[in-house]
Specification:
The chain is mostly beta strands. The chain contains 1 helix and 7 strands, in the order βαββββββ. The two termini are 14 Å apart.
Length: 110
């Protein structure tokens, strides 16, 4: 490891939304699990989706995000609805998008 990678945190409801390209990509991919990256305006977006889930209440956590001399490594996990919660019956499409400064390196999904 050469260090950790700083994530640019953005709340889509109050901050800068994803570029149009990212929104289109996520909308096309959301039904199935996906792992992808794309670059836009000096940033690298690392996207991990877990496909269609039968209810809401899911969340995605980042277990690791670090950089080596030749790659960026990311490891995420899908968490189910909390015990005792009422997640509803509508399907959900949990995903996470990590926005970092652009680096010309391979992203390895662990």
């Amino acid at each position: 490891k050469t260090g950790t990678v700083e994530i640019q945190k953005t709340d889509v409801s109050t901050g800068t939304p994803l570029p149009d390209t990212g929104i289109e990509i996520l909308d096309q991919k959301k039904e199935s699990a996906f792992k992808l990256t794309y670059a836009d305006e000096g940033y690298l977006y690392i996207c991990v989706g877990y496909g269609k889930q039968e209810s809401g209440g899911y969340s995605v956590t980042v277990n690791e995000l670090y950089e080596t001399d030749n790659a960026i490594y990311v490891n995420t996990n899908l968490l189910g609805p909390k015990a005792g919660s009422s997640p509803g019956t509508s399907p959900s499409y949990p995903y996470i998008v990590l926005k970092i400064e652009f680096r010309d390196k391979t992203v390895v999904f662990d």
